[in-house]
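A further point concerns the way the authors explain their paired sequence and structure data. Since the whole study asks how a given chain folds, the encoding of that fold should be made plain. A single example would do more here than another paragraph of explanation. An entry of this sort, consisting of the sequence and the corresponding backbone structure tokens, reads as follows:

_____
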Amino acid sequence: MNNRDSAQHSPASAPAASGTVIGLDIGGTKTRGVRFHDGEPVRDETAGSSNVQNVTKEQAAANLAELFGKIGGGVIDQVYAGAGGIDTEQDAQALADLIAPHAPGARITVVHDSRLLLAAGGASTGVAVIAGTGSAAWGKNDAGEEARAGGWGYLLGDEGSGYWLGREAVRHSLRRMNQGLEPDRLSRALLDSCGVDEPGKLIALFHSPDTGRRYWAQQARLVVEAADAGDQVSQALVVQAGRDLAELAGQAVRQLGLKGPVILGSGLGMNVPRLQDAFKAALAEDGIVDVRILQQDPVFGVPRLVAEQTP
């Protein structure tokens, strides 16, 4: 069990959620589950991804069974899950059906994971931007109107995400190869990480069934590390990622007629200062200055969301 400091994750301004609630944050690489009692976290566990965009339905079910084996038991009043790729009521129902056997009688709510992020930032209105394995922006204004930008998945978008950075590192390495240039710092790091000895082999590896969205998203760290070491190509990629994420945020802000806040979260968003700076600078150019970096993981927004639910 991974016990967390509840004061760190329960902002004083958050509404109280009574009873026992299981909060799930279902990402592309893992499923994070926190058991809350009266709004306070009492257990915190992880398992593999249970997002059927990334794993088979069977694997998703197995990972949920593992997680609930660690965190479930006893009376559960509600399960509140945020996941990428929840674009329709059918998407939400399919995930709810996988969760239901592990929480008999509980109210089950499934939403797009960006909603968790906004709540974890202590806001009921504003725009949340996910910058992790994938990317998306979602927001809500005082009138209850909602807007989304991006979140189409890696084949159609995910600009500024971990996957995007990993793929761009591959493309950069292949362009150098086509130009007859030797591998540079970023290319060498990528070759070493992938266990191949020349860029041409990246093509087959990229299309191999043995790799996929998660594998290439994990290579984003190479771009970040090279950027921090002074590699100009990598620096430009990280800055572009920040600007692309800002464009998603700007779309949602304009649709909703908001001035903010815009809250940036998930793995890249919370941990890469160069990307954060580019994100803030791009939004400032559009006059959006209430920009915040999430200080706690999105799953800790669940008590606020539960408390704000209609009966």
